[in-house]
Write a structure and sequence with these properties.
alpha+beta, eleven-stranded mixed sheet, 27 strands
Length: 821
């Protein structure tokens, strides 16, 4: 018997299925079409790397050779053509980054990305970043102005040549870039100053709140400015200091004179997170410490991570140039320099020429003060001469997809009123920040720095450097090494800039700046070793106040320990030191936690397991380390248990560059004034910190499997395309586990860390190594978009060819920029 035929589906159901299938098909086809368009559109914007490009504005041909890592080596017959070509070639790889950076600095992001950037844009408008950039541009000397003008012409030549195929980000966001101006380059320089120094004003206000709650004694404990571990450049090798006895009696917790200040490059993250890695390392050793008998100079600057990355490598050479227009002799102006450039700015910022090399760390000077202004009902503010009308600046912020947003700015003699930027603040607070109030604080003498041939010329060039103030290490082919602090740092009539001050009188005004010849400087020290890591650089008895806080001394202490070991070093050894992940600070705390648990009366089994792991730990912050995770989590909880009883929720306001030193002092000296009432001893307190760590909901059942690398994982993505699931594999590298920590030479966090690594080898400049975070290109389908990342993560680097013979062997692309007929 035949099976009965199945009943046909009702017509409405069949119709719905067909409609659904059609919608799915359309979505698939639409996605495929969009993906195909995106791929070919993005590929079409990749730069021409070979052949010839004719450009109006050049006076003679410029050769552009790109090596295996995509680094451009530019050779021109004049400085004007050289910087024109630098602007053009940098824009080939990084123009959208350049455009977004100038917009971000000026407060023009809402115009392209919508209202979510309104708060940011208002802050930048209040600060007056665009106006400050224009003042800085107007203050340039004739020779520097010519360099910036020709660089801008080169960028604009790129814009003009690519109007029909701009970088893909412009096409996705549907906007056209405006021409490049000198003030845009100044904006990018100001943005770097903001990144490194601007957060200081919040530190002052937060410290004021904490002082009001704790009083001067406890506040001083939280804000140390020196450590027994300090190693200012040129200081003698310090004898190891044994651990202090722990009597439990009140002892003076280490404090220092109020010379120093540092903001660490940015405001520190909340205590419940790891301190961000916004620092840097640099060191130089003489030939007495190297295998080849010539100096080695290393630098790794730590900044927030981003794609595209901060730095762009380049080699700039001028040959057969005509004499300078001011009549100087040509042999006085050799120009052949390689290293890291800042996209949007001419010159090489950190690197070497044929005779000298230099590297930076942030000096972290106190160049920003908060003044409490007194206003009357007429909108006037009080000055020593009486009541004065402030400047009123009306800003209008364009908002994509919405109405323009007004932003009124009030400016006093000290600077803009920033009250609206401080949550809960009602006083009229004015910000005096050198970068926005005085163009001299942004002076950029890199033309002279790049051309310097010896220590005297190097120092003469940096005597004009405005900021952000830097620790600069130096080496040259003649075997000399040196250190120089550089930048404009104010001298105040009174105070050290650590707290807000009254604005109605002149009692706390800036009366001058520290003369360059009085800034710390060292040349050819007997030890043959110089290093900085954002640590205190002022020797005992130094007469000026450079800063009110520094970064902790643990990184520089570790660097000196390795370099003073008596070994002879190679460039490979310098890279290994840059990758060093030993944390003596965290190991010390782990030992304290383990010992406390051992002495505790009734610790939990998990606390005992944690103590066993920490007791056996060697201090290496490796990805697989459970002990590193336990030590850091216990440390974070210890700080909370110490501060919350005295500050309540305001404990989250506590930020200080040397907060780790404050905690070390308390742990070592165990003063009764800091022991919370609910604990009978510090051992009980330390055990409670461990118990809190192992009770964390993220802690695994088996503590031995708690990986530090997972706790400190890194995921980098393009700011636009990383949010599109279909593009993530091309928009950024896969997530990786990291080694290192806040207090290791390889300073690491989830959001920041090493932005570049460099070692210059004066035994053979072609053996010098350079690498950046992701790659030379900012264009998503370029082969150089992410090709640096594996080496950056794994601790490898690349040779940067310098001599013609080395460059010939490394050449991959050859382009001629030809004057248009």
């Amino acid at each position: 018997m035949a099976a009965p035929a199945s009943a046909p589906a009702p017509k409405p159901r069949r119709m719905l299925l067909r409609i659904a299938a059609s919608i799915v098909l359309l979505l698939v086809l639409g996605t495929a079409t969009l993906g195909t368009w995106f791929y070919f559109a993005a590929r079409s914007t990749l730069p021409q790397l070979d052949g010839t490009i004719q450009l109006a504005g050049l006076s003679a041909p410029v050769t552009v050779i790109r090596d295996r890592q995509g680094v451009p080596h530019l050779t021109a017959r004049s400085l004007q053509d050289l910087f024109f070509a630098q602007g053009f070639v940098t824009a080939q790889d990084r123009f959208w980054q350049m455009d977004v950076t100038r917009r971000y600095a000026a407060g023009e992001m809402a115009e392209i990305l919508g209202a979510k950037f309104l708060e940011h844009d208002r802050e930048q408008r209040i600060l007056g970043m665009r106006q400050a950039a224009e003042r800085t541009a107007a203050a340039l000397g004739p020779r520097e102005r010519a360099c910036f003008e020709t660089y801008a012409q080169g960028v604009n030549a790129f814009i003009d040549a690519n109007r029909d195929r701009p970088p893909i980000e412009f096409r996705v966001l549907r906007y056209r870039p405006r021409p490049w101006q000198i003030s845009d380059s100044m904006l990018i320089g100001l943005f770097m100053s903001q990144l490194l120094n601007h957060g200081q004003y919040l530190d002052e206000i937060r410290r004021e709140t904490i002082l009001a709650k704790l009083g001067p004694e406890l506040t001083a404990d939280l804000y140390p400015t020196t450590s027994w571990r300090d190693r200012p450049p040129g200081s003698q090798k310090r004898s190891d200091i044994g651990e202090k006895t722990q009597t439990g009696e009140d002892q003076p917790v280490s404090r220092s004179r109020a010379w120093v200040r540092l903001d660490g490059g940015a405001a520190l993250e909340a205590l419940l997170e790891e301190t961000p890695a916004i620092g840097s390392n640099n060191w130089v050793i003489s030939g007495a410490h190297t295998v080849a008998g010539k100096p080695l100079l290393s630098n790794d600057m730590h900044l927030p991570h981003r794609i595209p990355n901060t730095w762009y490598e380049a080699h700039l050479e001028m040959r057969d140039a005509a004499p300078p227009q001011d009549g100087g002799k040509q042999d006085e102006y050799p120009y052949n320099v390689a290293g890291f450039t800042l996209p949007g700015v001419p010159f090489v910022i950190v690197g070497h020429n044929a005779r000298i090399a230099w590297g930076f760390t942030n000096l972290n000077p106190d160049v920003a003060d908060v003044y409490v202004e007194t206003f009357n009902d007429n909108g006037e503010y009080l000055t020593p001469e009486g009541w004065r009308k402030p400047e009123i600046r009306q800003e209008r912020i364009r908002v994509r997809g919405g109405a323009d947003a007004p932003a009124g700015v009030v400016v006093t003699r000290h600077g803009p009123i920033i009250t609206s930027l401080v949550p809960g603040e009602t006083r009229q607070l004015a910000l005096k920040w050198g970068a926005i109030t005085d163009p001299a604080f942004s002076s950029v003498p890199f033309l002279e720095v790049n051309a310097a041939q010896n220590w005297e010329e190097f120092r003469r060039a940096f005597s004009r450097f405005g900021g952000p103030a830097q620790n600069v290490v130096y080496a040259d082919v003649d075997g000399h090494i040196g250190y120089q602090a550089a930048g404009r740092i104010p001298i105040r009539a009174a105070g050290d800039g650590s707290l807000p001050v009254p604005g109605h009188d002149d009692a706390h005004e800036w009366i001058s700046v520290i003369p360059f010849d009085q800034l710390p400087s060292v040349f050819d020290p007997p030890s043959g070793i110089l290093a900085t890591a954002n640590n205190r650089i002022t020797p005992d008895g130094y007469p000026h106040s450079l800063a009110t806080q520094w970064f902790p001394p643990y990184r520089v202490e570790r660097i000196y320990r390795v370099l003073e070991s008596g070994r002879k070093f190679t460039a490979a050894d310098m890279l290994a030191l840059q990758m060093d992940v030993q944390s003596d600070y965290d190991r010390f705390l782990a030992e304290q936690f383990a010992a406390a648990v051992d002495r505790a009366q009734n610790p939990s089994q998990r606390a005992r397991a944690a103590a066993d792991l920490m007791r056996a730990w060697d201090g290496h912050m490796t990805p697989e380390s459970a002990a590193a995770t336990l030590a850091v989590q216990s440390r974070i909880n210890l700080f909370r248990l110490l501060l919350e009883p005295k500050l309540g929720l305001d404990y989250k306001l506590y930020r200080w560059g040397l907060q780790s030193v404050a905690l070390e002092n308390i742990v070592r000296q165990r003063p009764k004034r800091w022991l919370p009432e609910k604990y009978s001893s510090y051992d009980e307190l330390f055990t409670a910190a461990v118990e809190a760590a192992v009770s964390d909901p993220d802690a695994p059942r088996n503590l031995a499997t708690w990986r530090w690398g997972k706790f400190l994982s890194l995921q980098l993505q393009h700011p636009l395309f990383g949010s599109v699931p279909e593009l993530r594999r091309w928009a950024g590298p896969p997530p990786v586990e990291q080694s290192g920590g806040s207090y290791t030479v390889k300073q690491t966090s989830r959001t920041g860390g090493v932005s570049e690594r460099m070692t210059v080898d004066f035994a053979n400049l072609d053996a010098s190594t350079f690498n950046i975070l992701t790659g030379q290109s900012g264009q998503i389908f370029s082969p150089h978009y992410m090709d640096h990342f594996p080496a950056w993560h794994e601790g490898r680097s690349f040779l940067l060819p310098f001599t013609p013979a080395a460059l010939k062997n490394a050449q991959v692309h050859h382009l001629i920029l030809q004057p248009a007929k």
